[in-house]
Amino acid sequence: MTICENKIGSYLSVNVTEDEVLWDVNSTYNNGDEARDNNYIYKYAGIDGYNSTLSPENERDIWIIDRPTNYWSMLSENSELVKNTGYQTQKTDSTDLVVEFTLSNYNTLALLNVTASTVLIELINTSTSEVIETTTYDMIDRDSLTDAYLHYFSEPDFKYSIYHPIQVISGIKVKITVSPLYGTAGIGRAVLGFSNYLGETLFKIKPIQTSYTSDTVNEFGTTISTVNPVYNPTYTIKIPSYRMNGIMKKFKNLAGKPLLFIGDETDGSLFENLLTYGLWSKAQPTITNLKRGDLEISIQDLT
Q1: How far apart are CA 115 and CA 182, in angstroms?
Q2: Residues in contact with 182: Cβ distance below 8 Å, sequence separation at least 6, in sequence order
């Protein structure tokens, strides 16, 4: 098991713009109208034909935050929008999605909730523009197509995540080119940072999927019940006993911070590297002997 705190704060470049309608202090809005303020879309919940004197971000009584913009969605860490599935940075006009990040001596890149036929990752020297490394990922799982007959009639399986270790080199940027799948190219979450190895993840994994019902009262006083899925995987990690105390302190410092959990670092992993992006909700150690112990980690998935 390896963990990585996401350090992405901005794009170096991206070929997606914020084209949602910007909030205008001189306009009037009706209940349910949408407007953009900074990198988020807000819904108006006030009286029809009126507006707020302050921007939606600063007038939360009548403006309800709804989602990040298409431009910002793969980077959003807004605490009010923990579940961001569906708000993918994407282009639906059969055009490649191209995004660049500065590496800043990071060694781990991951892309989650990917919609693509192929993904090209290039490491480029920022001074000379020389391409140092090129890797292409085929996001169509062709192993599920066993023969020509099935290839013709069967819908293929798709891969939705990429784990890409990076050699630490200064003065490098990463360029990601996402080619469309059925007219859509998208990345639901980009993660970039420096990873830390915890210990061996055994095949004692509990991929727990549950659901819960939540009740909300809208502006008209109507109670609306919705059923929401929750993915809370649990991993058991073998750790040398002498490292347990230090690792527990690390988890204490990372409480409330979104992390990438890499359960399987195998190249070409059959399990898509067991990637989970979320918050740790439980870290329970068991010291079995003087040499080794078990650490059970439960994760609240955010993707």
Answers
A1: 9
A2: none
What pTM, to 2 d.p., does this model score? 0.81
In 3D space, the residue among 231, 237, 232 whose CA is nearest the CA of residue 204 turns out to be 237
Instruction: Tell me which amino acid residue 297 is.
Output: I
CATH class name, domain 17-69: mainly beta
In terms of Cβ atoms closer than 10 Å to its own Cβ (0-12, 13-18, 19+), residue 210 is exposed
107-118 pLDDT, tens digit per residue, is 999 999 898 999
Q: Residue 280 contacts by C-beta under 8 Å, 6 or more apart in sequence?
A: 251, 254, 255, 259, 297, 298, 299, 300
pLDDT in tens, 228-278: 666 778 888 888 888 888 989 988 898 888 899 988 887 777 677 788 898
Q: Which fold has domain 200-301?
A: Elongation Factor Tu (Ef-tu); domain 3 (2.40.30)
Decide if 273 contacts 252 (C-beta within 8 A). Answer: no
